[in-house]
Structures are given as C-alpha cells and as structure tokens.
Amino acid sequence: ARDARLRAELEKVRQVNKVIEGVTASLTKARDNMETVNRTVNNASTLLATWTRILSQTEHNQKLILNPNWHGASQDIEDMEHEDLRRQQEAERRAMEEQRRREDAERRAEEEERRKAAA
C-alpha cells in the first residue's frame, strides 16, 4: 500500500513536471514570437519613416513644379550665383566704406595736429 501511494505520488510529480515543462516551452515560444513581433515592428517603423520621407519629397517636388514662379533648377543655380555675387559686392562695398572712414579719421587727426602745432 505504501509502495502504491509512493508510485501514485511519483506519477503526480511526473505530471506536474510535464505541465511545468509545457509552460516553460510555451514561455520560450512566446519569447521567440515576441522577438519576431519586435523585429517586424522595427522593420515596419523603418519602412514607414522611409515612406514618409518619400511622400514629403514628392509633395515638395509637386509644389515646386506647380509653382508658376519656378523656372527650373538651372534658374535656381543662377539665382544662387547672383546672390553670392551680390553678397561679395556688398562685403567689398562695406570694406571700402570702412577704409574711407579710417582715412577720413586719419586726415582729421592730422589736421587737428597741424592746428595744434600752428597754435
């Protein structure tokens, strides 16, 4: 009788072990599935970001093409070159004005010295 009870207890422990092994296997499978879901979500996120950039660029291009004031990329380049030239000329003009101011200040200082020396 005692032997039968021990065998029954052993059988129950084996059943519990099988259930625990099943739960462990299920958890492992769930972890693997979650990793797959995570990779899929990351890939979808990357694709969505790419698609968003494509749509944004498409919208920009469409606005540019439909703009009646736009005369093409060649005109844009020419406009940028003109703007660079204008900036360079403006910088040169400012430098010349500054040089003229300095020369005027030097001339006034010399005149002031002459007046003091004459006095």
Quick rundown:
Keywords: Cell cycle, Cell division, Centromere, Chromosome, Chromosome partition, Coiled coil, Cytoplasm, Cytoskeleton, Kinetochore, Microtubule, Mitosis, Nucleus. The chain has 119 residues and is mainly alpha-helical. Helix content is 93%, strand content 0%.
Describe the protein in words.
The protein is mostly helical. It has a domain of 70 residues. The protein has two helices and no strands. The termini are far apart.
The general outline is elongated
Please estimate the helix content.
Answer: over 70%
Strand content: under 5%
List low-confidence stretches: none
Q: What string, H for helix and E for strand, traces the elements in order?
A: HH
Distance between the termini: 140 Å
Strand segment tally? 0
Largest sheet: none
> What's the tally of helices?
2
- Sheet/helix structural class: mainly alpha
Write down the overall mean pLDDT: 94
Q: What is the rounded Rg?
A: 43 Å
Looking at the chains present, what oligomeric state does this protein adopt? single chain
Could you list some keywords that capture this structure?
single chain, 119 residues, mainly alpha, mitosis, kinetochore, cell cycle, chromosome partition, cell division
Write the layout of secondary structure elements.
Layout: H1 2-66, H2 73-118
Subcellular location: Chromosome, Centromere, Kinetochore; Cytoplasm, Cytoskeleton, Spindle; Nucleus
InterPro entries: DASH_Duo1 (IPR013960)
Organism: Neohortaea acidophila
